Amino acid sequence: EFVSAGKMVELAPGVELHTIPAAHETLETDENGEYKAVSFLVNFRKENVSLFFAGDTIPYPGQDAAILRAVPAGAELTMCLPVNGRDEARHALGIAGNMDVDEAITLAKNCGAKLLIPCHIKMFAGNDPKEEVTAAYCEKSGIKTILPEAGKEFAL
């Protein structure tokens, strides 16, 4: 079922899916006024846990507020955020960018996240973060961080 941004669908009893607008460089809508890029927040009410999976996005005014409106009070929030960044070289190649690691850390902190999972690292040749992203760097901000690695399992 299609979910419009700002709406919620109950996937199972106590499991909610919320869509949040994403700005793949800009907040774009189609001819029906639907956002072209979205992020997803899943609330597991019984466990009081929320998982935010960012779509391709950069920070935009009100993004943290939109996320927080969908997170239940007191829920433990984990955020998967793209950190490959954006720059003129990529723009020249027609590659729309994402937030960088510092912007991801700021969004996670603004949302009160307990765990940050940086993503979009080594996904596409020539579209990696300019600097190495490390858990130690991210954790300086006070947010526990897990860096996924291809072929390796990790537990939350």
Mean pLDDT: 87
Largest beta sheet: what is the strand line-up?
1-2-3-4-5-6-7
Radius of gyration: 16 Å
The number of strands is 7
Sheet/helix structural class: alpha/beta
Shape descriptor: globular
Helical content (DSSP H or I, runs of 4+): 10-25%
Count of DSSP-assigned helices: 4
Report how far apart the termini are.
28 Å
- What series of H and E elements makes up the topology? EEEEHEHHEHE
The poorly predicted ranges are none
Largest sheet: 7 strands, mixed
Strand content: 15-25%
Summary keywords:
seven-stranded mixed sheet; 156 residues; alpha/beta; 7 strands
Walkthrough of the structure:
The protein is built from four helices and seven strands; from the N terminus they run ββββαβααβαβ. The longest helix is centred in the last third of the chain and has 10 residues, at 101-110. It is globular, with a radius of gyration of 16 Å. A seven-stranded mixed sheet has the order 1-2-3-4-5-6-7. The protein is of the alpha/beta class and 156 residues long.
